[in-house]
Amino acid sequence: MKTPEELVARFREQGYKVTPQRQLIFRLLDGNTAHPTAETLYEVAAKQMPGISLRTVYQTLSELSAMGEVQHIDLGSGAVRFDPNVDDHHHVVCSTCGVVHDVYVNQTPLQFEGDVEGFAVHSTRIVFSGECAHCAHLSA
Amino acid sequence: MKTPEELVARFREQGYKVTPQRQLIFRLLDGNTAHPTAETLYEVAAKQMPGISLRTVYQTLSELSAMGEVQHIDLGSGAVRFDPNVDDHHHVVCSTCGVVHDVYVNQTPLQFEGDVEGFAVHSTRIVFSGECAHCAHLSA
DNA sequence: TGCTAATCAACAAGTCGTGCTAACTAGCAA
DNA sequence: TTGCTAGTTAGCACGACTTGTTGATTAGCA
Questions:
Q1: pLDDT digits (tens, 9 = 90+) for A9-56
Q2: Which residues of B touch A80 (CB under 8 A)?
Q3: What stretches of B14-132 show up as alpha helix (H) in DSSP?
Q4: CA A130/CA A136 separation, integer angstroms
Q5: How far apart are CA B107 and CA B97, in angstroms?
Q6: A77 vs A8, residue with greater confidence
Q7: What dihedral angle (degrees, nearest 10) is formed by the CA atoms of B9, B11, B13, B15?
Q8: Interatomic CA–C1' length for residue A42 and nucleotide D28, angstroms
Q9: Straight-line distance from the first to the last Cα atom of chain A, in angstroms, rounded to the nearest whole number
Q10: Would the CB atoms of B111 and A105 count as touching at under 8 Å?
Q11: Within an 8 Å CB–CB cutoff, is residue B132 touching chain A?
């Protein structure tokens, strides 16, 4: 994702207004590696700006997603999560505590075999599930 | 997934009753490579057994899933899909028509890098998205 | 045969996300 | 500074998907 300042400029360019709500969301996402859901982000935002609505958070995230500034990741755990990291990366998920981390896999592109003649792959998503060091320690 | 006959035996073993509804679902899943949703399966089942309820389909699928006889796959496309193939396999999804195929990736286990010291991977899910030969042909 | 699980219909609820409206606020260009 | 217009808000609703509940009926199987 671009920096909050660059996003402000891009929003202006596109004719979107730069509101305090949007700027707050830019700042909350900047360098955020927690893969928040819209709801989570809303809760944090509401602490700093009581009165901001969940609706606005959803809307701003959709705009950022449409502009390619955030990735929208679905780990099948209910809510969609947002990731300001738009590199070609993948995810590890702790099935105990639900924490998500970005990881890089360098064997890509992967080869596969199956009954899929002529399929043109545009993207590959890899999700590693397991137990993070913290949870392993607690359960040991 | 086991054959319908074996499933009947397993259900009996576990003290579950073998009802016509359950047997129908076993048969519909047997060799099914279409990755149906519960709803889809229900529609097909209802043609052969009018009166079967969606509730029963959901319940039987949950039982099969709990017994490890079907995989329950979430491609982030709304409904959860069920796959009677419980091998260690992955999926390709056409983003145009939504069709899902099973594929095998032999480079696994994959290595990854990132800020995830001591993470114990239990499973890896890979989803290839793109365009299937059929859709590519239509759009050409 | 009879206990008990399974099924069914019908209704509800919960989660996630979006649509709509009406009123107010505020960005930003002239 | 003004004024157009987009953005925000609350509130209500809906839709998709999935599960819970209840109460009556059916049927598996020991």
A1: 999 998 999 999 999 999 999 999 999 999 999 999 999 999 999 999
A2: 76
A3: 20-29, 38-48, 54-66
A4: 10
A5: 28
A6: A8
A7: -150
A8: 52
A9: 38
A10: yes
A11: yes
SS3 A35: coil
Return the beta strands (E) in A40-89 as ranges: 71-73, 81-83
Q: Is A104 in CB contact (< 8 Å) with chain B?
A: yes
Burial category of A115 from C-beta neighbours within 10 Å (exposed 0-12, middle 13-18, buried 19 and up): exposed
Low-confidence ranges of chain B (pLDDT < 50): none
Q: Token pair of A33, please?
A: 């590696």
pTM beyond 0.70: the answer is: yes
**Nearest Cα to A120, choosing from B67, B48, B129, B10?**
B129
Nearest to A127 among B94, B102, B125 (CB): B125
Interatomic distance A107 CA / C21 C1' (Å): 52
**Closest to B79 measured CA to CA, from B92, B104, B98:** B98
β B120-131/B90-94 pair status: parallel
Q: Going from the N-terminus, what domains does chain A have, and what CATH number goes with each?
A: 4-82 (1.10.10.10), 87-139 (3.30.1490.190)
- The verdict on whether omega for the bond into residue B20 sits within 30 degrees of 0, i.e. cis, is no
Burial class (CB in 10 A: 0-12, 13-18, 19+), A122: exposed
The amino acid occupying position B76 is G
Mean pLDDT of chain A: 93
